[in-house]
Amino acid sequence: MTLPYTPSPSTRNTISPETRVLHSSHFYLPRNRSSFFSNESSLLKKESLPFKPREKRSTKSFLPILRLKNSKLTHPFASISSFAEAGGEEEGNEGIEIKKHQETVKNKEDDSPGMARAFDISSRTASAISIVIAFAALSLPFCLKTLGQGLDLKTKFLSYVTLLFGFYMAWNIGANDVANAMGTSVGSGALTMRQAVLTAAVLEFSGALLMGTHVTSTMQKGILVANVFQGKDTLLFAGLLSSLAAAGTWLQVASYYGWPVSTTHCIIGSMVGFGLVYGGRGAVFWSSLARVTSSWVISPLMGAMVSFLVYKFIRRFVYSAPNPGQAAAAAAPIAVFLGVTGISFAAFPLSEIFPLALAQALACGTTGAFLVDRIIRKKLGHLLVKASSTQPELKENAIHSKNIGFLSDFAGPKGTQLEIVYGVFGYMQILSACFMSFAHGGNDVSNAIGPLAAALSILHGGASGTDIVIPIDVLAWGGFGIVAGLMMWGYRVIATIGKKITELTPTRGFAAEFAAASVVLVASKLGLPISATHTLVGAVMGVGFARGLNSVRAETVREIVVSWAVTIPAGAIFAVFYTWILTKLLSYIL
Predict the structure, then answer these.
(1) Mean pLDDT across the chain, nearest whole number?
(2) What is the DSSP letter of 284?
(3) pLDDT of 363 over the 70 cut
(4) Residue 113's pLDDT band (boundaries 50, 70, 90)?
(5) How far is Cα 76 from Cα 314, in angstroms, rounded to an integer?
(6) Would you say 466 and 217 are in contact if contact means Cβ atoms under 8 Å apart?
(7) What's the number of CA atoms in the CB half-sphere (13 Å) around residue 101?
(8) Which pTM value belongs to this model?
(9) Separation CA 340–CA 278 (nearest Å)
(10) What is the distance between the alpha carbons of residues 82 and 3, in angstroms, rounded to a whole number?
(11) How far apart are CA 424 and CA 144, in angstroms?
(12) How far is CA 398 from CA 86, 96, 221, 329, 440, in A?
């Protein structure tokens, strides 16, 4: 996709009337509401989109790019300029007029499955991908060492079924939780849906394989009291499988409707239902459950407050600067330094000795900041020089900056300056999304693999008590399940996070992602009950609130909040039902 336009040389805040947006499959806003973003927010109105389409549609390409006429800039962004800042900088421009697709194209899109529309591929290709994944899920367990240890036929069969249960849970984790990392990047246009899913697939699997925990506890997350189930291995085995199936079932329902819910809360709700019915009230740590419930309020509120402040900070100190492009380029290394240092010190400490760990974290942060600064200067350097050579109206800017408060609303940059700002924060957002994908794969794979490994240990005669070692091939199996889920259904929740809560741009998306990551990191170190999914949703809402209450779609938020409240009870009900069925079946098999 090519966006040729030339900023007027008279002022940095003037966009040439030749500016146009070419249609592409992911940017086109369909008139037929039954298409991919079927419940998409009405926030994207014609009046708020500043460009007119050309009469002829351009050729599709795998990696849409953005170019400036007579310049060397090339961004791997989906449609940066199409998302004008609704906070005031381009509201006066002409509204976009979306041209109606040809009837044959529309009919083809309407008849295609969601996966085909999301990735702009044919229905036949989408079906082939699904068939290959299903075949791999059914056949790969026979290649794992878990089924090749001289076990009897009955134990092998139950181990095979257990692996499929774990795959089902991991599949649904990928389908729902991939939006935590990639939702804002797709919504802002920093990545296309296809780019986001392929990138997440590589990083999620790598994170699960390299960073996934190799030791887990049978009683996940301190929810169940282990002593209650001593000597009841068959019941505990049925309960673990039921918890996987129950959590997976609710996640699949939530993903189908595009609701971002917490996978940790799903597995906790499932285990609470099993423990309460089959172990009694004393089988559940109720204080732990109370902490989980409190995170429904704490997580979104903290995410919203921090993202509100981050976005207002960007608008006040970047948008209102005499040279917003230079201000953005200077702010990016600082943000990377703070983020990498905090993550290196808190999440992945390189040493157990405090002074050494702090020094290593500072070194990592400095290296990251240097590399980002070099990338920005290399990719956007010619635009930064061009923006600096344009003489701003100093007097007007001085008066303008003097009268701006931190919470004030004002017109932001346009033209070349806006392209630089979006370019900088687009790169920043891609980096943060990549890290979150890697971290998510390493962290949340335990929600599927923990109960799976515990169930396999019981089958193979291991202790049902404390710690269980997870084999590397089982970790890889969980990583494959996450990748399969995000490829087949990940686009559904990405649409909610990126499109349906509020309208996102690279700056807004970065503010939400940076705020969510910071809150989760700090809260985890302080021991506060926090949910990454809930925090990110709150952060996206906070960015919307920074632009006005009407910028957040209340209907979508209401659906999400209701799904959060229903998650634990739904998981518990499904777990009780599945445990009843499995105990009956196991009584005949064992």
Answers:
(1) 75
(2) B
(3) yes
(4) low
(5) 23
(6) yes
(7) 19
(8) 0.74
(9) 45
(10) 10
(11) 45
(12) 24, 33, 55, 21, 45
